Amino acid sequence: MKSNLDYPLVPYEAPSWTSTINKDMIPKYTIKLGTLNTPIQRWRLPDIPDDFEVFVKRDDMTGSVLTGNKVRKLEFLMADCVDKGCQAVIACGGIFSNSCRAAAIAARQMGLDSHLLLWSKETEMPFTGNALLDRLVGSNFYLMPKDCPFQTDVYPRMRQLYAHILKTSGKKAYQIPFGGTNEIGVWGYIACFHELMGQGLFESNYTDIVIAGGSGGSVMGLGIANYLTGSKLKIHGMAACLTNEYFHNEGDKILRAHGLQAEDGSTGVKTADIVHFAEVVGIGYGMNTPEEMECIEKIATKTGIFVDPVYSSKAVYNLIKMMNESPDTLKGKKVLFIHTGGVFDLFSGVFASRMNAKSCSENRVFDWMELTDKVPSSV
Ligand SMILES: *Cc1c(COP(=O)(O)O)cnc(C)c1O
C-alpha cells in the first residue's frame, strides 16, 4: 500500500449511521486533499422574501485551485486510485470542467499523470479558465465531439485510452467517472453531511438543503446521509446539466451498489424518495440567459460571493424564483445552500466580453489621467 509524496492513504472511519451500507462499499481509505470544515455563513441574497433565511456552506473554499465540491469526491476516488496501484488518471467532462481540473491538479500534486477526455465544439483547445490550469499542470487533452453519449462513446474511449496509456507508458490509469460520481465518489458528500452534523446541522433547525447538480453525486451523498440519519431535512438537487430521469437512474445505481435498494429495484429506497430534483438547465448546459448573468453580477455586487455560471448561478437563480413563486416547494423557511465552487468558469471569456460591452459609467470606470485639483496636505 504505497502512496505518493505528501498524500498518504488515511484509514477512513465511516460514521456509525452508515452501517447499513454494504460493507464492501465503505471506503477503507481517504486522502486529505481539501481544506475541509468549510464555514457556514448567513447569506443575505438579493430579492428573496423577508420570511426566508438563507445560509451558505462555503464549499467554494475547499482549496485555492484544488477547490469546489469535486475535491471531496476525489478524497475517496484518489485513495482508491492509489490503493489500486495506478500511476495516472483519466477524467472526462466539458471543456471547462471543474471535475477534470480538480482531477488534473490533484493527480499532479500526487505525482500522477492526467489524461482528460473533453467534449468540444471545436478542434482547438481554448486555454482559459479551468483549461488553462489543466494545461499548466501538464495534462494531456483528447477532444471528443460535443454531446457524445457516455455508455456507447465516452466510456469505450476511456477504456481504449487506458489500453493506450498502458502500452505506451506502462502506467495503469485510474478511470474517474463523469463528475466523479459513482458509488465511491458519493462518499464525498456522505462525509460532508457528517461534517455538517458536527457544525450543528440539526440544532440549527434548517428545513432544506439546496445544491446544484451535474452528475448528481454530491446531492446523492447528501440524500443518502439524510436518509440514513433519519433526518427530516428536504434535499434539493438543482439539475443544471442533465435530466431528472438521468439523476434517478444514476442515483438508483448507487443505491443498489450500496445495498440500499434491491437489485431489481423492488424493495428498498429510491432516489425519488430521498432527493427532490428540479431541472434548472435553462437554455443549455454551460449557457446562460441574460437574467442568469445579471444574477451572478448582482449576487457578487451585493454579497461578495461569486457563483459560477454553469452550476451554482442556475441553482441560486432558481432558488430565488422558487422562494418567490412556489415557496411550498421548500419544506420551510431556513435554507442551507451548498456552494459547490466553480469560480474559474467566470474566466472563460464570456463574462469579460459582457463587461467590455458596457459603458464606462455602468462599469464605474472614471477617467482620471491627470492630477489637476489641489491636493489637501492631509485629510
Ligand atoms: C460538478 C459541479 C457541480 C455538480 O456536482 P455533481 O456532484 O456532479 O452533481 C455543481 N457545481 C459545480 C461548481 C461543479 O463543478
TrEMBL record:
One of its GO terms (molecular function) is D-cysteine desulfhydrase activity. The modification N6-(pyridoxal phosphate)lysine is found at K70. Signal peptide: none annotated. Residues 32-341 form the Tryptophan synthase beta chain-like PALP domain. The active site is at S97 (nucleophile). The keyword Acyltransferase does not apply. It holds the Pfam family PALP. InterPro entries: ACCD_DCysDesulf (IPR027278), TrpB-like_PALP (IPR001926), TrpB-like_PALP_sf (IPR036052). Its cofactor is pyridoxal 5'-phosphate. It comes from the Eukaryota. Keywords: Pyridoxal phosphate. Belongs to the ACC deaminase/D-cysteine desulfhydrase family. This is Tryptophan synthase beta chain-like PALP domain-containing protein. It comes from Strongylocentrotus purpuratus (Purple sea urchin).
